[in-house]
Amino acid sequence: MIAFADDTPLAAILAEVFRFGAGESCGKCTPCQRGTPQLAAMFEAAMAGGRIEPGRCADLLDALGAASLCGHGRGLAEFARAVQTHFPEEWKACFS
Amino acid sequence: MLQLTIDGIARSAEPGRLLDVLLQAGAEVPHLCHDPRLTPHGGCRLCLVEVDGEPRPVASCACQAEDGMVIRTDTPVLRALRRTHLQLLAESYPAAAMEAEPQHPLHRLFAAYDVEPGGQLRDGLFLDDSHPYIGIDMTRCIDCQRCVRICEQLQGQFVWEAWHRGAALRIAPAHGATLLEGGCVSCGACVDSCPSGALYDKRVTVEVEGWTRTTCVYCAVGCQMEVGRRGGRVVAVRPAASPVNRGHLCVKGRYAFEFNHSPERITWPMIRDGEGWRRVSWGEALDFTAAKLRAIVAAHGADAIGVLGSARATNEENYLAQKFARVVLGTNNVDCCARVCHTPSAKALKTMLGTGAASNGFDDIELAGAFLICGANPTENHPVVGARIKQAVLNGARLVVIDPRRTELAGLADVHLAPRPGCNVPLFNAMAATLIEEDLLDQAFIGERVDGFDEFADFIVDYAPERVAMECGVSAADIRAAARLYAAGRPSMCLHGLGVTEHLQGTEGVMTLINLALLTGNLGRPGAGINPLRGQNNVQGAAHMGCDPATLPGGHSFKEAGARCASVWGGALPERHGRNLLQMVDAAAAGELKAMWAFGYDIYLSLANVGETSRALSELELVIVQDLFLNETAKAFGSVFLPAASFFERDGTFMNSDRRVQRIRQVVPAPGEARPDWWIIQQLAARLGRAEGFDFAGPQAIWDEVRALWPEGAGLSYARLEHESLHWPCPDEQHPGTPVLYQSSFPVGQRAMLAAIAYLPTPEQTDADYPLLLLTGRTLYQFNAGTMSNRTPDTVLRPADTLDMAPADASRLGLADATPVRVTSRYGEVVLPLRISRQVQPGQVFATFHRSEPLVNRLTSSIRDLQVQAPEYKVTAVRVTAVSA
């Protein structure tokens, strides 16, 4: 469970979820062990006003969603995809 | 067979892991964390494939092939996922490594997916440059955990661990600051499995030109290995897939090969003139030797000569050696180093059951419900079998260890009985008494297969655990617990070593073990049996080929095989009883034996009671030493030195501990003028006027003569040995071999007789002057006389022989760890560095014997096994004092 204020930007929520997810990764499979920290860093940077490279982010999320060993990695990818679906404006903002 | 569709093509396949099936079908599926020796991991996510009906790609290493599967191994989606994963792995991978080794499989994979190493150094990587063989460069680690898993699943050592988790995960030893501190036994399995080069063989510094499969030359497990060569030198060894070792090796087999190119190799014949050795031609050396032998036969008769075969030599060469003794010289004075190790086992098994060899094979280890390990330390002395036993025990098999020392397996045992050395017979008898008293018998087996039960039951009452426990130095309750575990575990597998045989009652000790198997029906079935762990590569074969005064090729007696041999050899066999090795030494001391020919055997270093050996050997007129090196026997007593080719340099066969005959193959040419033993024997036979019968073109032709003389080996043709791992008896070329002996009867008959063996204490006892009991034995990193292992970096791992002593004794005697101490027995004294060890019981000490200085056999006695005269290396009363005292 993650508590956040109703005005917390989605980039910050994404950064927190992936930071938490990276910390909780067991480290066994490549996309989760090595991909999740990169995604966390990307959203962290976006939160600070930086721009995420969309192709790289999509590759990492694809790998995490399609190829990670357990539900941990897949769930993280689904979370990102849900933000993309339900908050397309804020999602896009991370990439511009 | 399964029917699958792989990339649009219909295929049939055996059931198995999907990745293995795909690779078998020729699909190029990349993988990094997969190793067929290990359970599935599914970590690297490179072996992803698409399977119809699955919502997302599946890791093919971690799922089974199923009938009807439709699989795609190469699609744009899969390629993109694999590339993402390789990019993630490559980010921390050093670019320099890829530049230096473009052909490395991982680097080719990076290149194939257009991925470049990023070289971003991770923090907290494990560093250790201290191991002599295993190199570590964790900047190349990709966290596949194959090292962690193979150390657990193959070696059972649990050295490596995946520390932390997620991105912070790092591979490092679970304990200690270095690999060796972490309990590494240097088997190299982690190096062998590592796909990235993070772990590597330090001593392999050149690219291998080619690999040759052969059989290991150290212990008698008979591991199959591939030997890499370059420029005529052995430069690398790696394990081969084989039922014997299943892709595993130990430190000696894998790493201790550099002796082969030691500058100390003697590569030309030599004769000792006056005080020094003189290089001579083969012609001169052979003429000199033949003339001396001829003169001794003329003056003293053929029985004044003794011939010693060797565990180091092939079956073919040992066969020729005994044929030479019997046919060319005309004497049965032929023996080999089995005399000092497992001849008691062979004698006991042959006498009671009919075959002088292990009853079961190593493949039975995984079938056993319980193990009874007696006087053997397999994790050090037969490490690959030791690891298999360890895995079986970790998987739930019960374990009884009987050993005065707390060996590694004793530490894992359900019951560890640590008897006073010399008390095997009463201890095994007490187990038999327990089996009968508590009705833990296999009545059906006894009814059908065992004789003499009633008399034995009457006899054994006197050995009830409560009566003998005190003498044995163990508790009666533990003896009973051990007997119960052995009976309840059926099939229970008994494996024993020299702690049983090298005693006054060595042969009888083995007989009392056989009683236990007969009483519990642990013979003639898989997962059971009585199994001597033979100590040297071909010691079973050397004796089995007839290097034994009373045995002809095939392990047969003169009565069984005399006529057959005489007819093939074209002449009557010598009728006089031959002398065994110890009797040869006695006869030399008495002036009756004048010459000895020893190949691949340093008898002076190896025999007990060096003082007596020395007096005997110095009486000889002619000592022919045939070896790789000027060994201690040659240095002190040699008359002629004949340089032999090593096992890397010739062809032939070895016979391992579980009755398999396996090929050895020439990897590199012999250096200088060194020649295979079989060539030397044939040359000498020709010079003694007996070229006929010694004119074989090579080992295969010799082996075919062996097969003609040995009915149980007739089916073991070289053609079959190329691709089969066969246990004898194998009487014809269609026969599948016999991994388990005695399934329906014994060679001695339908029934075997229990042996009522009374305990006879050794005269070698402690007293006020010699209050401690010394045991001698081997260690993981060295091998026997050290002729080979002392000429390798194993000396870094085990630099010296030591005297191991219990902390309580060391403290009582005021002796400090690692300081030199004087060990004195009734027969001699040596100075050894002290090693305080909790493996040793108070009142006992343990020494290894791998070095010529200090020569530990200065201490051992002349007491021998009552039946076959193996020396009692395992019991010597000593005192230990500080060197300054």
UniProtKB/TrEMBL annotation, chain A:
Residue span(s) of domain NADH-ubiquinone oxidoreductase 51kDa subunit iron-sulphur binding: 11-57
SUPFAM superfamilies: Nqo1C-terminal domain-like
Gene Ontology molecular function, alphabetical: 4 iron, 4 sulfur cluster binding
InterPro entries: Nuop51_4Fe4S-bd, Nuop51_4Fe4S-bd_sf
Pfam families named in the record: NADH_4Fe-4S
Name of the molecule in the record: Dehydrogenase subunit, putative
Organism name: Pseudogulbenkiania ferrooxidans 2002
From TrEMBL, chain B:
Entry's Gene Ontology molecular function annotations: 4 iron, 4 sulfur cluster binding; formate dehydrogenase (NAD+) activity; metal ion binding; molybdopterin cofactor binding; NADH dehydrogenase activity
GO annotations of cellular component type: membrane; oxidoreductase complex
Residue span(s) of domain 4Fe-4S ferredoxin-type: 132-161, 175-204
Claim: Metal-binding is one of the keywords in the record: yes
Gene Ontology terms: biological process: formate metabolic process; respiratory electron transport chain
UniProt keyword list: 4Fe-4S, Iron, Iron-sulfur, Metal-binding, Repeat
Alphabetized SMART domains for the sequence: Molybdop_Fe4S4
Keyword Chaperone in annotation: no
Domain 2Fe-2S ferredoxin-type residue range list: 1-77
Domain 4Fe-4S Mo/W bis-MGD-type, chain residue ranges per copy: 209-264
Source organism superkingdom: Bacteria
Short name of one Pfam family: Molybdopterin
Stated family: In the C-terminal section; belongs to the prokaryotic molybdopterin-containing oxidoreductase family.
PANTHER family documented for this protein: NADH-QUINONE OXIDOREDUCTASE SUBUNIT G (PTHR43105:SF10), RESPIRATORY NITRATE REDUCTASE (PTHR43105)
Protein name (Swiss-Prot/TrEMBL): Formate dehydrogenase, alpha subunit
Lineage of source species: Bacteria, Pseudomonadati, Pseudomonadota, Betaproteobacteria, Neisseriales
